[in-house]
């Protein structure tokens, strides 16, 4: 194995420490930050994430409530909950957990989240503001990719970046943030012809397809930086990324799954809750 491991654990701990300090200041000023997570699924992985976010929030001194509407929830139920939480002055951050009941699109529902409380940047207004350079919360996973690159001092400007995945929550915002930092960016998706030929051009390759081990040694240029966003459940209850671990033989740097982008995402989400609380009148 040659690649430097881009662990997110220390970075996440530092971000959480900062968020905890900010949360304590806000609490002392009579504005204890509070995050609300809305779920409408009985998916086990989702339930695990919602619980683990709760324990991270508690450690950072951030209040946390789960609104579990169950898998039979309608879009109207979810929107009404989001609208109510948006109007609640004690709540500063709101997230909607995926997966959603069949056929519902996150972007449509997330339009009911007040952009000032949209700490995971899912409201189309937040995304539009982000794309046009106006202040907005970036989707935490996309921001985590950039934070990880910065932590390891991996230059972005002028580099060729390839993002595999074009979802509104991960692929597109990652591509945008890389573009904003002056990378030359390509986005791949399921209809991309000869994926390996495109990804092998990358100085920085971000895999966000949700397809276990999609990216193998044949997809990566020697010395490239590879950020693995994928989280794919295995039959034995584990988790693997979108990148085959053998890529470490070729890449210059590789983020692990678990322990790479994931913990940084959670930490940034908590930081964004404190920022939302600080910005609340
Ligand atoms: P998604 O909405 O399912 O989007 C997946 C994207 O990947 C789509 O654009 C799809 O193309 C593309 N894709 C799928 N298979 C492909 C293939 N064989 N070749 C090329 N492109 C392919 O998923 P998402 O919500 O963006 O999440 C992506 C991954 O990140 C998932 O594993 C998810 O669990 C993980 N994730 C991790 C974190 C974290 O904090 N670590 C947070 C969020 C998500 P089309 O558009 O053509 O369908």
How are the SSEs ordered, and which strands pair?
Blueprint: E1 4-5, H1 9-28, E2 34-39, H2 44-59, E3 63-68, H3 75-86, E4 93-96, H4 106-110, H5 124-131, H6 140-151, E5 160-164, H7 171-180, E6 184-188, H8 195-199, E7 204-207, E8 225-228, E9 232-233, E10 239-240, E11 253-254, H9 261-279
Parallel strand pairs: 1-11, 2-3, 2-4, 5-6, 5-7, 7-8, 8-11
Antiparallel strand pairs: 9-10
Helix pairs in contact: 1-9, 6-7, 6-9
The protein binds NADP nicotinamide-adenine-dinucleotide phosphate.
How does this structure look, described?
This protein is of the alpha/beta class. The chain folds into 2 domains: 29-122, Leucine Dehydrogenase, chain A, domain 1 (Rossmann fold, 3-Layer(aba) Sandwich), CATH 3.40.50; 140-261, Rossmann fold (3-Layer(aba) Sandwich). The chain is built from 9 helices and 11 strands. The N and C termini lie far apart (51 Å). The mean pLDDT is 97. Bound molecules: NADP nicotinamide-adenine-dinucleotide phosphate (NAP).
